[in-house]
Design a protein that fits this description.
Blueprint: H1 6-35, H2 42-53, H3 56-66, H4 70-93, H5 97-117, H6 125-128, H7 130-150, H8 177-188
Helix pairs in contact: 1-4, 1-7, 2-4, 2-5, 4-5, 5-7, 7-8
């Protein structure tokens, strides 16, 4: 692999890590919300808030343009938005995992606010937050775990005297593609 492609590969793997972490977070939140009576899924909560906050002409335009497919398109748009932000978090997290965690937490905060304000949920406020909290714990753990596989280990004292083999953009010398693919598959499963 040429050295000019390595930074792009690392960023692509970071984006993939963010996407997988976001997908597992949303999937587990959807599962938990399905198991708890009176709780709306985080995706539907965000979509409901988008509909509630949209100006009337925008709502009418969506209904006229998309007809009965307006709700699936809205849900798809929410999913696409979350996917893009999760990929950005993962790509940025290759170098700055705290920034990635902050972006991920920001997404969860938006979901929590939407869940608390959701008009279709019958459960109490604390019960509405259960899927969101599970989403935070599982998704953040998956994101940080996958990003840790892309980061170079801290150099040992003996190795500091040697020329650096890994630059800031390269994959760490200890990077194991199989280990990353197995971890990514495990998170996906």
């Amino acid at each position: 692999m040429s050295t000019d492609r390595t930074p792009r590969t690392r960023l692509a793997l970071g984006a993939l890590s963010g996407l997988l972490a976001g997908a597992i977070a949303v999937a587990i939140a959807e599962l938990v919300s399905a198991l708890v009576d009176g709780v709306t899924s985080p995706l539907f909560s965000v979509a409901n808030r988008a509909v509630d906050e949209a100006p009337r002409p925008v709502k009418e335009f969506a209904i006229e343009t998309f007809g009965t497919a307006d709700k699936p398109i809205l849900i798809g748009s929410v999913i696409a938005g979350v996917a893009v932000l999760a990929m950005v978090a993962g790509a940025l997290g290759v170098r700055r995992p705290r920034l990635a965690a902050g972006i991920f937490i920001g997404l969860v905060v938006v979901s929590a606010a939407a869940a608390l304000a959701d008009r279709s949920a019958a459960a109490g406020p604390l019960l509405r937050l259960v899927p969101v909290l599970v989403m935070l714990v599982v998704g953040l753990a998956a994101l940080l775990f996958l990003l840790s596989l892309l980061r170079a280990p801290a150099p040992r004292v003996v190795e500091r005297a040697l020329p650096a083999r890994v630059s800031g953009d390269d994959l760490p010398s200890s990077f194991d593609r199989r280990k990353f693919l197995v971890a990514a598959a495990a998170v996906s499963a």
